[in-house]
Amino acid sequence: MLSLNKVSKVFDAGTVNEKYAVKNLSAAFAKGDFVTIIGSNGAGKSSILNLIAGVYFPEEGTITLDGADITRTPEYRRADRISRVFQDPMVGTASDMWLEENLALAYRRGKRRGLRWGITETEREFFIEKLKPLGLGLEKRLSVKTGLLSGGQRQALTLLMASFNNPSLLLLDEHTAALDPGTAGKVLELTEQIVAENELTTLMVTHNMKDAIAYGNRLIMLSAGNILLDISGEEKQHLTVTDLMQRFADLSGEELDNDELLLTS
Q1: Neighbours of 1 (CB within 10 A)
Q2: Which domains does the chain have, with CATH numbers?
């Protein structure tokens, strides 16, 4: 349902600082895939998500989503089909708005809007029903300003909002990196729960090798803007961090020496 065909993105082209963030990359993702993406700094992880989301366009190659060519489609025109959660928990919600107002904005995205702003009782009941399974007590805090929530609560809320209206694709850009380990673990559990319940096709960028192995049905490791490893199914289920590091060394001809990756292994 998502395909990247020989996609390249270069920055500072034609200068001494020219750098390929993504180079001649091809990949296809099936509906319902939960793919974890890992790699060192500068490997192209966030660049791939930005290309898919339409933050910028590739110099070469094509991107298709649900059979439609979206290579040159502006970001705002992809927003009703692609949801994204960023690293910073403060990005996905409006601090000065009530929790239920944030939910209403996400719920009404892409729908026709009249002059009425007030939240209906039907909507409120729907929000409560969706919040309860999170186990954070947020269903009792609908009239609390979102800025009073913890980072983990806001990220969980952002995840829920991103799943509204069944997007074709969910992009998670290191969405637990700014959280403490305990909170990050809880948000990852919620991620798995929300992705499974809504059958969302998901790409999750992470620096944590253990998380990359533990979550999803497929793991992609990037190096220098291209795919070095693509592991799925039973092979992924039996993968260990040691295996992953060794395979990186065998294929790249160099040791994995990125501190951030190694510290989270």
Answers
A1: 15
A2: 2-111+118-240 (3.40.50.300)
